[in-house]
Amino acid sequence: MSKRKLSKQQAWRVQKIQSERALRALRKEQQIEQQLQGAELGQEQEGIVIAHFGTQLLVESRTPDGIAQQARCHIRANLGNLVTGDQVIWRAQSSTDGESQGVVVARLDRRSEILRPSPHSGLKPVAANVDLMVLVIAPEPEAHAELIDRYLVAAEISGIRPLLLLNKSDLLHENAQGERLEALLQLYASLGYEHLKVSKNDPEALIQLKETLKEDISVFVGQSGVGKSSLINALLPEEELKVGALSEARKTGKHTTTTARLYHFPSGGDLIDSPGIREFGLWHMSAEQVLSGFVELNALNGQCKFRNCQHQNEPGCAVLKALENQQLHPSRFESFKRILKQIEDNQRPY
Predict the structure, then answer these.
(1) Distance CA 174, CA 188 (A)
(2) Count of CB atoms within 10 A of residue 257's CB?
(3) pLDDT score, position 250
(4) Residue 104 vs residues 31, 76, 96, 156: alpha-carbon distances, Å
(5) How far is CA 64 from CA 45, 69, 70, 115, 258, in A?
(6) DSSP notation for 187-248
(7) Which helix (H) or strand (E) holds 264?
């Protein structure tokens, strides 16, 4: 479909709006620079980004007594894209309305980051300094192996420990997908992936989940409608989160979380709740990266007869040999091929 051509007046209005936005951003940056030069800001202190609201961040830091304090902070223009979980340096700013405000002046190095490719803006970070990626699946909406594999590849490449979490486990044997889900979990268990079954109505399972999340910064990912927000309500009942109802017509969820936010567990550990992602693309990755993201294929890396082996019908292919010897599950191989095909299609020039 060809793009609709804008009239001269429409093009002028678009340019005018963009120019005004750029001018406002420049004025804000100049104001911050003046405050920095005039020593109008407080001393530097470390903090963590716990939420992102448009052009502002909600930054949390600790007083010498260990008391948490939060401030809405502007961002210096040269810091790039900051996300929830980022460790930052910020300085307090005087406020006339009594609300704590400040300016983020630096970002500390990230030990890990979750990136989501965007067709318009390249790679977009979703969360930073994550230790554990909790991939939530459920009997409804249906869990697809390829979607799970995409998340697992992303976790492996990012150096983040993955955890498969089957939510709504009380519906498992009431659903036609029950046996298939059980077999799916066993497949990933055989590959060394940790998994748990949980339900918001099962107190013991929730205690086990809390213990697993303790001491880590975790992020919940997965399709909309699998119950991520409901689980967080059960884990942190004092937090008021909007919980969306599952669409009965299409069995897909409605997006309820609009920005990633970090929550603290009273017993230790932090949780980042990220917007639901139905499609987690990997088209920014190379074929070698995707292969290394499949743990059983990574063990075969470099064992093919030909260095540029495409793992299709080449002689001496270690991957095809593993498939033939039942050392590689067919569904995982199919996921691998589909992901490579999607990457090839997205990277092909038109």
Answers:
(1) 22
(2) 19
(3) 41
(4) 14, 6, 19, 31
(5) 11, 11, 14, 34, 33
(6) HHHHTT-EEEE--TT-HHHHHHHHHHHTTSEEEEE--TTSSHHHHHHHH-TTS----PPPPT
(7) strand 261-264
pLDDT of residue 119: 63
Question: What does the radius of gyration of the chain's CA atoms come to, in whole angstroms?
Answer: 23
DSSP state of 163: E
The per-residue pLDDT for range 226-264, each reduced to its tens digit, is: 888 788 888 887 765 544 443 444 444 444 445 778 999
The model carries a pTM of 0.77
Query: How confident is the model at residue 170, as a pLDDT?
Result: 82
Write out the two tokens for 46.
């470390």
Measured distance CA(22)–CA(225) in Å, rounded: 38
Please report the DSSP string for 49-92 in residue order: EEEEETTEEEEEEE-TT--EEEEEEEE-GGG----TT-EEEEEE
Amino acid 189: pLDDT: 96
* Stretch (H or E) spanning 18: helix 8-37
**pLDDT less than 70: residues of the chain:** 1-6, 14, 20-39, 96-98, 118-121, 175-176, 239-258, 274-281, 347-350
Q: Which of 195, 42, 213 is nearest to 132 (CA)?
A: 213
Please say whether the beta carbons of 74 and 58 come within 8 A: no
143: alpha, beta or left? (left if phi > 0; alpha if psi -120 to 50):
beta
Q: What pLDDT digit, counting tens, does each position of 15-55 carry?
A: 777 776 666 665 666 565 555 544 478 889 999 999 988 77
Q: What is the DSSP string of 292-325?
A: HHSHHHHTTTT-SSSTT--SSS-TT-HHHHHHHT
What's the confidence (pLDDT) of residue 134?
Answer: 92
Please give the structure tokens belonging to residue 190: 């055989």
Residue type, 206: L
Distance CA 106, CA 87 (A): 9
